[in-house]
């Protein structure tokens, strides 16, 4: 029996969506601390969202080329377990906060994942997202899953255009450590759809 694929619901902006994610058995929720994102939350909102979360649900804070001062401000106020870096942060930058982190890699043409895995050797995992010029993530588009090379030693978190309809296929093809969904389970940006969240979990469970 293989290891169960973990699930992260990202871009949570409402406390009820966080609680619902936990009830469904999600492993993690993602909070976006990137002001340009339609799913951005303030530290104050983030504290409200995670209040009352049951134990063993990981809270992930997503940042895009954030200033260190801002990042420290958020970490001082919000109980974040893992940092997720979505910009051009260097390995040194990712390491400086003394927290476990995930580095997002946009799957542009010719991206060298094996090289990046070495460069970000201290990362807990690499998150693979769709590349779109000028967009830091959340494109809603899938990339060609066959481009994920064999022989990556780190866990892969698969993101980019996942939906209840395609997630089982994605898990079968890539066999990622985890899948990460935001737009694919929403009514509108930042507002999750309870039925779609449940359907997404069923899709993952059907393969595990």
Q: What is the fold-level CATH name, i.e. the topology?
A: TIM Barrel
Q: What is the level 1 CATH name?
A: Alpha Beta
Helix content: 25-40%
Number of domains: 1
GO biological process, one term: L-tryptophan biosynthetic process
Keywords: Amino-acid biosynthesis, Aromatic amino acid biosynthesis, Isomerase, Tryptophan biosynthesis
Catalytic activity: N-(5-phospho-beta-D-ribosyl)anthranilate = 1-(2-carboxyphenylamino)-1-deoxy-D-ribulose 5-phosphate
InterPro entries: Aldolase_TIM (IPR013785), PRAI_dom (IPR001240), RibuloseP-bd_barrel (IPR011060), TrpF_fam (IPR044643)
Protein described:
One of its GO terms (biological process) is L-tryptophan biosynthetic process. One of its GO terms (molecular function) is phosphoribosylanthranilate isomerase activity. Residues 8-201 form the N-(5'phosphoribosyl) anthranilate isomerase (PRAI) domain. Belongs to the TrpF family. The protein has 208 residues and is an alpha/beta fold. It has a single domain (6-205), classed as TIM Barrel. It is built from 7 helices and 10 strands. The strands form 2 sheets. An 8-stranded parallel barrel has the order 1-2-3-4-5-6-7-8, surrounded by 4 helices. A two-stranded antiparallel ribbon has the order 9-10. α1 (15-24) runs parallel beside α7.
